Structures are given as structure tokens and as C-alpha cells.
Amino acid sequence: MGQNRSSIHVGQTVEVVKKRDQRSGNLTEGVVKKILTNSSFHPHGIKVMLESGEVGRVKNIIED
Q1: What does residue 30 show for φ and ψ, rounded to 5 degrees?
Q2: In this predicted structure, what is the pLDDT of residue 41?
Q3: 2, 59 Cβ separation under 8 angstroms
Q4: Which residues, 6+ apart, have CB-to-CB distance to 22 below 8 Å?
Q5: Total domains, the chain
């Protein structure tokens, strides 16, 4: 779901998987502060920085 850069916007609430949680699949919820992936598509999810400073790949977009 979070594989297309066009569907992710700053200020949006998302669930990301951090690098160290990739094996366990633990998701972290937060608000997008910055989009770090430059390409329009990434098979593992677009990499973002959350307002908390955590970095991860978007797995779910939370509709608000």
C-alpha cells in the first residue's frame, strides 16, 4: 500500500517498519515529517522520516 510515492504526503499518519523490525514485522505508527525515497515506486515501501525522528518504510496508510 505504501509503495507509491504519490500516495504518501507530509503530515499523513502511517505505519512503518523500521530497519531493526524487518524480521519481526513490528509496525510503528507516526506522522510523516519527510519523504526520503526519491523514486516514484519502491517494492518494499517508500522510506519516510516520522515526526519522532524514526525512519522506516511505509506499510500502511492510516485514513483519518
Answers
A1: -170, 180
A2: 96
A3: yes
A4: none
A5: 1
**Which residues on adjacent β-strands are paired with residue 57?**
17, 47
pLDDT band of residue 1 (cuts 50, 70, 90) is confident
Q: Which residues contact 1 (CB under 8 A, 6 or more apart)?
A: 7, 58, 59, 60, 61
Dmax of the chain from CA atoms?
28
Start-to-end C-alpha separation, the chain: 16
> Which range of residues forms the domain containing residue 29?
5-61
Q: What is the pLDDT of residues 7-47, one digit of tens each?
A: 999 999 999 999 999 999 999 999 999 999 999 999 999 99
Report the CATH number at residue 52: 2.30.30
